[in-house]
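Reproducibility note. Readers wishing to regenerate the assembly model reported in the main text can use the exact inputs given here. Chain order matters: entities are listed in the order in which they were concatenated for prediction.
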Amino acid sequence: MNGNRFGRLFQVTTFGESHGEAMGCTVSGCPAGLELSEEDIQADLDRRKPGQSMITTSRGEPDDVSIKSGIQDGYTTGTPIGMVIQNKDARSEKYEPFITAPRPSHGDFTYSAKFGTRNWGGGGRSSARETVNWVAAGAIAKQLLAHAGIELKAHVNQIDDIAAPEVSFEQLNEHSEANDVRCAHPETAERMQARIEEYQQEGDSIGGSIYFEARGAPPGLGAPRFDSLSARLGQAMMSVPATTAFEFGLGREAREYTGSERNDDWEFDSEGNPTPVENDHGGIQGGISSGEPIYGEVTLHAPTSIPKSQQTADWETGELKDEQVIGRHDPVLPPRGVPVVEAMLALTLVDFMLLSGRINPDRLDDRPGEYDTDYHPSNPRNE
Amino acid sequence: MNGNRFGRLFQVTTFGESHGEAMGCTVSGCPAGLELSEEDIQADLDRRKPGQSMITTSRGEPDDVSIKSGIQDGYTTGTPIGMVIQNKDARSEKYEPFITAPRPSHGDFTYSAKFGTRNWGGGGRSSARETVNWVAAGAIAKQLLAHAGIELKAHVNQIDDIAAPEVSFEQLNEHSEANDVRCAHPETAERMQARIEEYQQEGDSIGGSIYFEARGAPPGLGAPRFDSLSARLGQAMMSVPATTAFEFGLGREAREYTGSERNDDWEFDSEGNPTPVENDHGGIQGGISSGEPIYGEVTLHAPTSIPKSQQTADWETGELKDEQVIGRHDPVLPPRGVPVVEAMLALTLVDFMLLSGRINPDRLDDRPGEYDTDYHPSNPRNE
Amino acid sequence: MNGNRFGRLFQVTTFGESHGEAMGCTVSGCPAGLELSEEDIQADLDRRKPGQSMITTSRGEPDDVSIKSGIQDGYTTGTPIGMVIQNKDARSEKYEPFITAPRPSHGDFTYSAKFGTRNWGGGGRSSARETVNWVAAGAIAKQLLAHAGIELKAHVNQIDDIAAPEVSFEQLNEHSEANDVRCAHPETAERMQARIEEYQQEGDSIGGSIYFEARGAPPGLGAPRFDSLSARLGQAMMSVPATTAFEFGLGREAREYTGSERNDDWEFDSEGNPTPVENDHGGIQGGISSGEPIYGEVTLHAPTSIPKSQQTADWETGELKDEQVIGRHDPVLPPRGVPVVEAMLALTLVDFMLLSGRINPDRLDDRPGEYDTDYHPSNPRNE
Amino acid sequence: MNGNRFGRLFQVTTFGESHGEAMGCTVSGCPAGLELSEEDIQADLDRRKPGQSMITTSRGEPDDVSIKSGIQDGYTTGTPIGMVIQNKDARSEKYEPFITAPRPSHGDFTYSAKFGTRNWGGGGRSSARETVNWVAAGAIAKQLLAHAGIELKAHVNQIDDIAAPEVSFEQLNEHSEANDVRCAHPETAERMQARIEEYQQEGDSIGGSIYFEARGAPPGLGAPRFDSLSARLGQAMMSVPATTAFEFGLGREAREYTGSERNDDWEFDSEGNPTPVENDHGGIQGGISSGEPIYGEVTLHAPTSIPKSQQTADWETGELKDEQVIGRHDPVLPPRGVPVVEAMLALTLVDFMLLSGRINPDRLDDRPGEYDTDYHPSNPRNE
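Running the prediction on these inputs yields the following structure tokens for the assembly.
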């Protein structure tokens, strides 16, 4: 409703502004019995954090997560997991020129129009810094999915007009973290890197896109119509800051395919069950998962904060002025967006796994250990 | 949760299967005092209904809506509006071959995987017939938006590789209903029509896309992050059956723009207020409306039901078989999809208007008439 | 949000006014594979319907339910169950004096204050007639609970100052439907009946209360804090028209018990599991079910529509006037409230059974029959 | 869904266990422009905190709140308000005997039955310590209500069989904080205090109840049926730990009133508007506020943690054992429950104020100051 909650059964609630004291995130609905540590979460935070390479902002944030609740002896307890991440390197003075003069294509004007005010330091709540919370929550979702046999991965598949060729899931896993661009096709990654640096030197920025894929999702996830897997993925991915397009399967290209070309015939798999011959449908049919890999793509526009001078209109002085957005900014978003897209994919899938009862909403059944009180005969699970 | 509800304050709940007795829809959260009749709703239903032209299915459904509640003396009362639309021309026998042998790229397999069964006649709940409910609800939303000064319109902007040139909002309104394709560029419409008929004669079908635009939305609609206007539009549009891509503003093309190209500078409007020089941002900045026209695009794949023979796998007999989906089907979806996309746009916008208090959730203030009991001094609205 | 929805996973959405064309109800989230017929629902509707005895209103409504969707070959399909119940005996003219002069302690004034208007015939949306929808939905919930081994029952345990002694669950089942008052203690029922008739003859009405009990609920239902079983029962029961108090366990009497008196010690049951020695806690500890019977009580005030003359204030004419609420009304609410309380109890419990995964949200596992497509090896349920 | 969220537009999300590192709470949906400081919140936290008198637990928690986000220059910004309260005086060793042997009538057994584990230190998530979050959130709600002219107050109106006489709202405000019991009738407070100490010395505890009242709520708050003001208050109050009964207006006594006795006639107020002669309806008619004071009562059972020896059953050893719950505990709950009940009342009312548009969900209109960007002509609020 107010924009800081995601999920139906696996619920994420966030707080925090770019230059505020801390970012924070509460995950509720994670079943008891999942092994979880701060390190598990930190690994993904480190993939998103600023300052990790020459093509990211130089803001220095360690993004150390601190879990405040919901874990006992290394396992989740089923109650809310509160997490806090301190902001340590905020420098708001660079944003003062923009308090009453909105930066072009940022949320400055629109937040002020909505709230009559806004936290202006570093973009406040509208800053992509807030996705640190998503990645923290998404790391928990991934852990839970892994437990259920679902894996997922994303990589940068296009920067400007440089498109990577199709890669296998194995290539995705092997190569996407091996370069600063996070493109799983090493040769393309190099060309992308060069292009990004070119724009960066010009004081400009550039757009790109992210391909994502999930393997191991059982058939039957998603609900008819408004809560279809595609609709909820649509919401999830269109939440990602700077996203202007979401596609799955053949996506936007589907408009140029005939039915007979795009339709996937059925055959039997080795165990005698129907299975689609191809996967032009991106793992989703009628809004519900088919058991095939779920894949799609997200386009992120170029960062709006650029050193190049742009025109703004100061509503207090009534003057037009040319301003540079100095701060410390990314010249391109997809490389740091990869873990964010993965997080939103994980959060969406884990919710459907819980909603379909495929992951037990209260507790994982195979939780070992001393507090295993799985004892009551009138509990149907124990029969 | 279960897929048959849309909206937070303006809530739509639907029921019905393609070959069931009736379709139905309950709208709650429509404020009191809106003038509303069955005719207002029927006008949009007629744009969506089958059998309206040579390039739609020949199923004969009048789609007459019957309002059961929520209206008194021609005005809404603020309580739920129940609507029922009878199904009159269901012929299920054509679907019998597919009870245990899923039609390619339909929801047959996935619904069965989820529910262990499905209503197989005409595709049951997975059929696009169900969008009749959405259009009924959307017609109410449009009426409410019109009352608040917001207009919206969609048209078919591409079929196969035939793309319409950009059209103005005025052209959209003037031409989109003047041809069977619902393309606002008459000359392109003719070429599209010819192309569709070509595929239709081959026993095949073809994909396409729909452009939508809304005018008059005030700045400040949408909420930060997961409930941004773009995220909720994403969910809404990705719900539309056969949709594989959603974009707004520059959409997927944004990946090839630099920041300095895409960013929209600020100037002052005639009244001295900041206004963007251009609208590459599609009316949404930081997830919140800027006051500029909101526009975007939805891609719909080709109808999966085609007369051409396709292979399926019968899970009961264990046999592969070639089947034609005979029934009565559309050769292309966007022409009938136009009112559906408009409905989802309207439902999304009206919800944000209510959530921001710009439309009063309880009642329209200017409701005339004998039961106007706007009398109580302690009601702050009356002061 | 707007008051016509109940439930999180098992969702009920209603429409209809007392004197409108029809009442209606959509149940979504009922798993596939539940055997269900109109007769199953009708049985409970008949217990609630008007005109069933001398101590109910004489309005003549057959309350025949018509299921429009969601059932195939006698089993639920997992998709929304749409139900419609025609209104047949509305006589609105008796309500004309009250259009601008609110009936005492009714919702007339408050609905008008909220919406600036109201459907005045028969009380419109505020009428308890609307609970016909709840009972229809509740009948489905009961069927699902029975499938999971949970039974529930209510009866009238007090009218005016005539209180029934405690009865066993067996007595509840045996006697509560055997008399018009629906009190499971036959002798008390007679005294209650006489007292009700006494007030009825005086042109007055009287209050009372309903005791409810559920057996077979496993331990572990409910969630911490705001979604505790007690909190959600509180919402459910306080929704019942005319309810002014809700209690469970020792309820209001608990204020006069010490900890050592009220606390229930633990012992072992025959299978060696901890079980409480007594059940002063009403089956709920820390907001979560203990496995013991869940019981509580709901108080309903006297019907506000009485033939006795009462004073109202006409806001149009500015005159005070004495009016009788003529219509056709109940002299007491609990006898017809019994199936309503049962419905709300069932809806609350079934929701928690689904939320905890104890009932599979997609489908019942033991559904027999020809469309049983429980075949896919990658579906974890099938392993 | 998972129990740690309350509210529809004014949303509270909490985390934290009794003996965990910290408690925390995120409030989203608070409009921009509300003056707010940590001191405003601290005042209510101090009323709830342990160790405040001889009749509360001696656990030493300063309960200092730290606001992490959502405030700028002393005013809310409309974005989430993150708050953290450190736990400082947890001593878990006293709880070790109960890890596998549930304390009588606590949530120990039921949490373990649900989650298969539980955080056992100090009762973990089931501890009433968690209400520190509610009070923090409630303090913000109260501030917002005060801004809209709504005041509310609670006091202890019964302990054991000692009932306070009715008190006026003025007395409530004047006396309820003047004694340790928080009873607004000083003489009764003394008797209550003596009684509590008596039980305390016996190593026992006692129940009691809390009366609450809100003034200034406009008519028209609440929605029909399941979201009525009474239903949502029911949920809110039944969430309060140890609550076993909720009533409003005549409450449970209503069962012994006739319609003619309980019904409130209408007259005109000094300005010529209908107003009820009395307020037996507790400010709620048909589930919607009437404009009269909203009042009711909540019963809290005796604390279950008592020094007296009680029997428990150890599911690991299979032995029955007698245990004392040593820890540091309250001998009675209502004195510290008063701010908790006020918080839940405030959270419920503020939500309805937002839902009805009576408080603007985006921002308070009279917010002064330098960032007031209330400038855009197409924003209808500015016309």
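We highlight two features of this model. The CA atoms of residues 105 and 333 of chain D lie 15 Å apart. Chain D has one domain: 5-382.
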